[in-house]
Prior knowledge:
By secondary structure, the protein is an alpha/beta fold. It contains 29 helices and 17 strands. The strands form three sheets. It has an eight-stranded parallel beta sheet.
Amino acid sequence: MNNLLILLTFALFTFGSYAHFNKPLEEPSWPATIPGFAFSPYHEDQSPLTGVFPSTESIDADLTQLSGMVHAIRTYSVDGVFGDISKLAAKHNINVALGAWLDKDAERNERELSKLEEIVQRPPYNIVRVIAGNEALLRKDLTLEQMTAYLDRLQKNIQTPISTAEPWDIWIKYPELAKHVDYLAVHMLPYWEGIAVEQAVDYIVDKMALLKRTFPDKPIVIAEVGWPSNGRSIKNATASEANEAIFLRRFISKAREEGYVYYVMEAFDQPWKAELEGAVGAYWGVYDVNRQPKFEFYRPIIPIKQWRILAAASILLAVFLVIFLLMDSGSLKKRGRTFLVAVAFSASSVIIWVLYQHSLLYQNWISLSVGILLILGVIGIWLVILVEAHEWAEALWLKKHRRQLALPDASEQPENLPFVSIHVPAYNEPAEMMIDTINALSRLDYPNFEVLIIDNNTPDESTWKPVEQHCETLGEKFRFFHVAPLEGYKAGALNFALEHTHPDAQAIAVIDSDYQVKPDWLKNMAVHLNDPEIAIVQAPQDYRDYSENAFKAMCYAEYKGFFHIGMVTRNERNAIIQHGTMTIVRRSILEEVGGWGESTITEDAELGLKIFEHGYQAAYEATSFGQGLMPDTFIDYKKQRYRWAYGAMQIMREHAGALFLNKTDLNIGQRYHFIAGWLPWIADGFNFIFTLLAIVWSVLMIIDPIQFNAPNAIISAVPILFFAFKLLKMLILYRTRVHAGVRTSLAAAIAGLALSHTIAKAVLYGLFIGRKMPFLRTPKQAETAAFIQALRDAGQEFLLVIILSTLLLGIGWRIGFDSTETLFWSLVMVVQMIPYLAAIILSVVSISPGSSSKWLKFKPVVSDNT
């Protein structure tokens, strides 16, 4: 019932929000007739650029539609079929302001002017004025001297009033031009000047007054006046159907008061103009390309006429998302469920809005393809946000944990403790570190265990021989094996150990070669295998060298999030990631599933998934029982994460049937966590593709800013929102679940972001290119890299920062940031740059082994899973 009330509340809020922002707007009514329309009769698949022109019949049909609502039309050329427009218009009692197209082509100009002179001087004599050239001076196609020569010629040859059409500022700039015309043909398009729609009519009145003062003896005709219904914004001017309706209805009312003669720009949408003016050029018509009115002429204006449909679609999609998010939410507090419902409704509203905006566009195959990719990208980002939100809610607002792992009372000695065989695989590890690891195992407070150390393929005998000799001093519990050659990397070593395990061993424990376990590790954890349902007992990875320098402290902060947030959440549905240290697995089940898999480089995570596929249980206790060593350099840190991410993609590919088709005993919660848990990494991979496409698109914007506009602002806002959402989630959960301060949380964020590029490469290679890769061992206690090498460690990220920064400067220089879309796109570029900057920062920090870690504070994390 609570879920239903929450859902109903947000549904009503969504519907009410749509209703609020679409309240009818009272504006002056459109009159029965207006002075004029700019008239271009091209249909959707027609364009002068491709040489496909309208027919006489379609032009006549357009004039029939305008008949009775307009006194005159303005044309732009007399070439071909357009030379017949005045004759066709006369049939409908429509006058014509006849235009001749003038540009740099002198021969074409001569043909246009000669044809114009001929048409003006023949019946039906409905040409009321002539306009020679359209913004030819603004485009710099003609010089002032060339234009005045053309105008003087026309004044000599015809009696009809003549002019040339230019924006108001060109007339002010070239006042001598007025001496060669009978009237001023002025373009008043405040949208192009970035004027908000609320001030646009007053702006025109002001400029008309200026022109009248400057040219008191010349009549003024507004040859173009209008507002686009779609396209990019410019400063304060926003293109929309509502703004087009508001502007035109207000302007027409004011023009009647002021006695202006004007031609509304324009009668019909012209998709072909997008190639000349950008996408916005296609949307200046009062009627769309299908000759349907785009807004109300007389009734109140509703910003989005279909708002009820959009609201209903948003609610229905949100309900579907909510059902998915809350299908297993019994342990969530009310505020957690409310949070998830809010995110679901936000996602649905944005997705529906993006689809609606896309439906308003005139599409060619390029724009359609780009649009589909953008929509899929938006949906993908929101999918990751929903997954992140689910983890956020379950980490912060659980009533209580459903799968609790109680540590045994220290005062009581558990009975029936299983015999545990502890396996320590090693390759080319420092002998001193290995001996410390073995000594810690020798201090275990546990009665029944053995330790097998498997050194596989270490070539230098002086590296492994001291370890073998030390094991001999510890008695028969400790057995050392040096095996060469041995295939299968770590998994091969572990399978070798399994073959040589004591016959009485009931459980296999694994630790990495650098781990020093606490004496009570097995006593506290192995006892849980007395529960026959449990096959895996897992404790978190932890590290003891985090205080050595700032680099390791930052990495340590990043590691803690997974083990104290992600793993705890996954444990609720028996879906932990088994990691190959501090893990204990029931021997019989390990053998049942075929041992450690050698086909992936993350054999530990794959083993856990195989065990779940067989229907067994795992237990996770977020208490540290042992500590290892972290990578010493940034490049080693990246190698480790590359291996993890690549291995995850191998597992996803090899176990696709179990994860996506439910071909095993995995339940839906386990499938969800394995897919959702790797989804952020997959998002990093596709985000890298997006970065490359964004680079290409930005280059095209700089080269040709008319053809290539920035995407819609709401599309650009989604990746910005995604970044902010993930950062906020991390800061909040680190504060509440890891008990980290702001500085520590930010350090973890920098370390995590620094790995984004590495993860992206691993994901893309793992999913689409590679089938196998060498096992990448993470070196411990390595010599600190030279300064130049440390800089090279972030070389690709540094290059991407340079490219993105250069493009940002190029956009600012070539296009500017007046457009909201361009501004948001630039912010997207900044957001895309942040992970690469983080990599540079961490790389620089890593070359300072003596840097202090004291500025980061780490409090012990007490498990709440008990």
